[in-house]
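Human:
Take a look at this sequence-structure pair and walk me through the tokens.
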Amino acid sequence: MRKYIIKAESWLSRILNRKRKFSLATAITAITIISFLVSVPIPLFNFEVKTFEIEGDINEFRTGETVSFSFNVMHTPARALIVFGDGQMEDILPYGEAINGRFIGTINHSYALQGKYTPILQVWNEWGTYSTDVLDLFIKNAPPDFDIALNGEIIEPGVKNEGSLRTSKKPTSLFEYEIYEDDKVEIAVVNLLDAENLTYIYDTGEQQISSKEAFQLLSWKNKGRYPLTVTAVGSLGELSYRTVNINVHNKAPKADFSIKNRMVFLDSKIELSAENSSDTPSDKNSLKYLWNFDGGRSYKYGKQVSYSFAEAGTHNITLTVKDNDGEISSITKSVYIDNPYPLISLQELEIPVIQEGEQIIFHADSFDDDEEVIRLLYYWNFDSEDFDPLNVSTFELGGWKYKKVYEDDYKGYLTVAAVDSLGQYSFDAMEVQVINVDPQVSANGASFITNITFHVLRNDIAYDDLDFICSLVKDDSKFLLSSLTFENSTEFTVSSDETQLDLSVLNDWKIEINSSDLLPENATVEMQVDLKFLDGQVLSLSSGQLSGGSIASWVEDLTSHFYNGKDCSYNVPITIRSQIYDPSVDDVSFVMTYFEEKLFEIECESLPDDLVYSENGIVYKIDYFESLLGVQYAHLTASQEFTTQFEDHPFLL
């Protein structure tokens, strides 16, 4: 319990309390005055302020906290009030009572804003005599209330500390947070209540940072257990803090090294570097490096070392790294040590540029001792991406000459290796560029492919001694296709077998059916032909009824049914025969353009404008012109383009 006691005495008390000797006259005067005052009460008072129980002896309170002012005045005053210093005052008479000749009571008040205040107590007697006293108070904001979030996770210790200038209590239990050395931890002050203009102190156990920012990105360099304390301090010193234990674990290093020269010979040095080994930034500079050669035959220390082997063959190199916390990591790699090797050199090509599909002969000149040179094996590699000089099994075995056909354009390297009987080898490489070759195409013709069937139908007049000759006429040449005969009197229709025809568009085609002799007088006959095309379309033609008494004959022009002279188009499918050659494995697109033109003589006052339009995939173009002789013409062209894709066919299509 803290008490602030201020005594305000009357002028008479001050006189009587003075430590000095009085003269007789003074004493008589004082006695006279006292006798007079016995019948006239003079207000004498004590002034006492009580607050809640806290430690210390400082006039400090928080904003909004109730401050209790206690007063003790000798005699009952005629008037009394307290001026609180924040713009408010209060009459204390309703809050007190007369007890044993004193006026005693308590009045409460609270302050909304922090600052220094001087409350004043004033009392008057019935003659207007008054006395005052002043009290100094300090009002401070409440300590800030907040939580800590680590990497977005709000930490909740067993006990939240709300420390201030008046206390030094700490949490009785702490939250444990696990990280690795040099891990970045986002530390944020969250859930902050009613606090402004704060300064934050971040104490990590390794460093202390003061900042106005409620966020920090921090890390710990060394393994250990660290109390992280975040303190929020207000402008008048009000503060609170939160603490969490950070358990920092060591991260084991990772050993790795590079070999500068993977192919070396006896007694030549190998350059080794452990630069590729990794650890946390705070540990990497303190790593220790141990090199082990061939399982412990020799050791070396350091980040970068050189070493030479005295024996040919494959040797193992092991690197072990150790950090300052004793964690280790190891890695083993092999290196091949070669004996003196043969020499090999590729001859320059006679032709500077290679075309795809062209056969090239490569020559390799080799040098070794006389006994070994005839035993050399030659390995050829034509894929620069698959080249591995330590593994000739990926090469193609051949002689000192090698024939190669590049099926596609290519830019890369050719490598050849010469290997002697003891396994020593060398290689040489040259750049190779193969250019693309344009495909070749030839059109052999266009034709109508159709299956043809002939039919002959008769009436009930029987005859069996007539043959009907079915022929195909190409321009002026006739070819026999079928001969039809009625076998008996009950057969009224006779048909030929279906025959496939390949009819060139460059020729005129007709079909012709003739009877071998005269038909009977009353006989009638009808001749028919069916043409079935590749797209399933069927064209049926008929002679109509032919009367007897003469030789039955029917000729039909097929070309007129195939070709539409009005729009220069074909009514039936056309088959184009062509050959395409490309020596590469490129995909080939065959683009065919069908083109037809006609020239018409015209008469008009003035030539029309040229015209170009498209319809159903056909592009039509009409050019009008006048010859030197003054004759006017219309030149009509029609074209249509067809595209076919061929894939993965390197040769004839």
Remarks:
- Helices lie at 11-16, 24-37, 281-284, 370-373, 559-562.
- Residues 582-646 form one domain.
- The CA atoms of residues 75 and 101 lie 5 Å apart.
- The chain is about 5% helix and 55% strand.
